[in-house]
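Give me the fold.
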Amino acid sequence: MGGSEMLEALPIALGIALSPFPVIPAIMLLFTGRPRATAAGFLLGWSVGVSAVVVVSVLVADLIEFSDTPATWISWVRVLLGAMLLAYGPRPG
């Protein structure tokens, strides 16, 4: 396997390697002394955390003012990204 094939497989490999992590808290909650109370606390903390992220994101989005014309640097970033895509496009797969 060459270097480019390994780089293409890296995101899939990371996804497979990290897939057991969501199961670990559930298993740990089952082996506590009071699994229902611990699970309820975990669910409450998770819900509060997700809600806080959503609220902060909405508040920050309200503070940002969008103009009709983008800044000059944004236009240059778009040109650079487009040039990179054009350079990457004809590459044989």
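The radius of gyration is 23 Å.
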